[in-house]
Amino acid sequence: MTITLERMRADVAAMIHEAPEDVGLDDNLMDLGLDSMRLMNLILAWQEAGVDLDFGSFAEEFTLSGWWRAIEAKRAQG
After folding, report:
1. The domain that contains 72 carries what CATH number?
2. Which among 2, 29, 50, 74 could disulfide-bond with 34, CB atoms 3.0 to 4.6 Å apart, if both were Cys?
3. Distance, CA of 29 to CA of 60 (rounded, Å)
4. What is the DSSP string of 16-71?
5. pTM for the whole thing?
6. Range(s) of the domain holding residue 31
7. Angle 64-77/5-15 helices, nearest 10 degrees?
8. Structural domains of the chain, count
């Protein structure tokens, strides 16, 4: 299964008990209630879906758009 931005948004929303449409691409996810333990759980699930990034890559920026840029950059590297 390939990860998509919409799947990431839905996963984050479920983790913080919000509707996906209430999680903006540029919202600070920490401000919405995503903590490091929840992020680790998301990263593990996304790694199983083929995302080749570690916690440090996600911790640099706490927005969906930032995470998506990191994933796209990694994919572009091959």
Report:
1. 1.10.1200.10
2. 29
3. 12
4. TT--GGGS-TTS-TTTTT--HHHHHHHHHHHHHTT----HHHHHT--SHHHHHHHH
5. 0.91
6. 5-77
7. 140
8. 1
